[in-house]
């Protein structure tokens, strides 16, 4: 029986989504607590992309294996394509935002850069 590469890839996608969620959550918390303002929309969008992935990866992993008759191939393709689009838009928007900053130092800046990098990995 050939090895199925989908499960390890989905597990890595799930893990990187959790890591990105934690990094973006830290950055958003820093903006709210330190400055008293809302976090940048780029950070908020990556939080959304992380949560979207945490909801869709179980469907994309479990449904084709255990419920093949209930899984529509175009719905699976659309969900995966939409997830990919969210991650691409999120990490590019965050990278552009970070490149436009005049001052980016400290742990929060490193966390935002790491979130952009993990977003690229998930993409």
Number of helices: 4
The percentage of residues in β strands lies in under 5%
Q: Describe the biggest sheet?
A: none
Distance between the termini: 29 Å
Structural class: mainly alpha
Poorly predicted runs are none
Shape: elongated
Q: Mean pLDDT score, rounded?
A: 87
Share of residues in helices: over 70%
Total strands: the figure is 0
Structure description:
The chain has 123 residues and is an all-alpha fold. It contains 4 helices and no strands. The longest helix has 30 residues, at 6-35. The mean pLDDT is 87.
List keywords for this structure.
mainly alpha; 123 residues; elongated
What topology emerges from the helices and strands here?
Layout (H helix, E strand, L loop, with lengths): L5 H30 L5 H26 L6 H28 L6 H16 L1
Helix pairs in contact: 1-2, 1-4, 2-3, 3-4
